[in-house]
Amino acid sequence: MSYWEYPRYVSVAEKKAKAAKKLKQLSKKNPDLKPVVLQGSAIARTWWGKAWNLNLERYADYHNRIGRGRSYVRHGAVLDLQIDPGEARAAVQGSHSSPYSVVISIKTLKKDIWNTILDQCQGMLESLQELLNGNFPKTMGEIFTHKDAGMFPSPKEIKFSCSCPDWAGMCKHVAATLYGIGARLDESPELFFRMRKVEMGDLIGQAISGHKQELLARASKKSSRIIEEADLSDRFGIELEQSFVISSSVSAEETVPVSPRKRKKTASAAQSKLPAKNRPGQKGSKKIKKMLTRKQAPTSKGAGKPEKEKNKVTSLAKKLRMR
Question: How many domains does the chain have?
Answer without folding.
Answer: 1
